Amino acid sequence: MFHTHTYPEYLTSDLISGAVVHCFSTRRGGVSTGHLSSLNLGVHRGDDWNNVYENYRRLGAAVGFTPEQTVFTHQTHTDRVARVGAEDRGWGLFREVEPERDGIYTNEPGVALVCFSADCTPILLHDPVRHAVAAVHSGWRGTALGIAARCVEAMTREFGTDPADLQAAIGPCIGPCCFETDANVPEAMEKALGPAADQYIRRAGEKYYPDLKGLNALWLRLAGVCQIDSSCDCTRCQPDRFWSHRLTGFDRGSQAAIIMLKGKEASD
């Protein structure tokens, strides 16, 4: 189950427990103005950097991280995932992220993983046994490529994660009520997942309405994850709470999904 917190407004999942902090932001409670009003967390949306920093400061004060602890994805709709650590803090907010990576993961405390969305699917993972976390951006292309499963595989390989231990929270994204596509999207899903994808794709005339949350949950289950919590919110349906690329195009800010292990950090 997801809960809403104010102020600033953000969502958390009851499923993610233990020594972590996490959130899925909304657009409410920041200092940005105009079409970026108000909790814009994207540094490439045309916002003043000082506004973005203050938005992270406000959200972090409420959730339990600082802007200086953040590490960003560099999202290009791939299935690339990368391990990051304390030495990477500041990538994104204070300096450009160079390597492309739609998912990042770590087992180091004090590293706040950040991925972005404005209709795409944000996914947070927590391994309470091996003490590791991940943040994943999954657009429809990333969903077809199975990026959620790729991240589970990487955590299993590098940290010894048992997928059955993982707690997965799938945040607000565009829902099957609003995600209208042509045949290329369901064809990509069916090519990757076979007939199992069909239950998450509704057809209406010549158009299709995929359920990105359901498809990502399917990938997670296929990877061995059985603890999955999904938000019921559609970003396109609630323009007062969320930015939607489908609704406004590039004239928008960005939501962020953030997760960080608490605990004692290694000394420099």
Which helices and strands occur, and which strands form pairs?
Layout: E1 2-5, E2 10-13, E3 20-25, H1 49-63, E4 70-72, E5 81-83, E6 103-106, E7 112-117, E8 121-127, E9 132-138, H2 140-145, H3 147-159, E10 167-170, H4 184-193, E11 201-204, E12 207-210, H5 212-222, E13 227-230, H6 245-248, E14 255-261
Helix pairs in contact: 3-5
- Which term fits the overall shape? globular
| Beta strand count | 14
Biggest sheet details: 6 strands, mixed
Average pLDDT: 97
Main sheet: strand order: 1-2-3-14-7-4
Task: Give a structural overview.
The chain is α+β, with helices and mostly antiparallel strands. It has a single domain (2-261), classed as CNF1/YfiH-like putative cysteine hydrolases (4-Layer Sandwich), CATH 3.60.140.10. Helix content is 22%, strand content 25%. The protein has helices at 49-63, 140-145, 147-159, 184-193, 212-222, 245-248; strands at 2-5, 10-13, 20-25, 70-72, 81-83, 103-106, 112-117, 121-127, 132-138, 167-170, 201-204, 207-210, 227-230, 255-261. The strands form three sheets. Strands 1-2-3-14-7-4 form a six-stranded mixed beta sheet, with no helix packed on it. Strands 5-6-9-8-10-13 form a six-stranded mixed beta sheet. The chain has a two-stranded antiparallel ribbon with strand order 11-12. A hairpin with a 2-residue loop joins strand 11 and strand 12 (207-210). Helix 3 (147-159) packs parallel to helix 5 (212-222). The longest helix has 15 residues, at 49-63. The protein is globular, with a radius of gyration of 17 Å. It starts with a strand and ends in a 7-residue tail after the last strand. The mean pLDDT is 97.
